Amino acid sequence: MATKDNIWVDAAIARQLPAAVARGNRRSMREPRALQARFDAREHRICVELSNGVSMSFPPSIAQGLRSATPKDLAQIEISPQGVGLHWPAIDADLSIAGMLKGAFGSRIWMKELASRAGKSKSEAKSAAARVNGAKGGRPRKVNPV
Description:
Elements: H1 4-30, E1 34-40, E2 45-50, E3 55-58, H2 71-75, E4 78-79, E5 85-88, E6 93-96, H3 97-101, H4 108-120, H5 124-135
Antiparallel strand pairs: 1-2, 2-3, 4-5, 5-6
């Protein structure tokens, strides 16, 4: 049922709509959007083509929700209607393009856990660096401010 208030709201929306559409169009021109996305089974990487000409790829193991997904599930990528995100319906996982460009492949907690695991990893290079630092006297002592 139409009321006086509804008519006023509709008129206000009609006045604001052209400016909102123009702002949205300008934003779309500035911010990269996903145009294509696919799973490369041979390289075991997610590959994304962006509207600014940039191509990026990453291993599923670094993305929240994708680590234990099957190749079949990873291949079922959907791009959001505006191109701002990727969605895997079979595993209900989502990633934002803006987040990926900033290096965030999941929530803060997920990224912190990923960094923690990386810090605990062992390699010959890491062991060699520890030996060199040890020869220099090891980790500097913490200084307590007065």
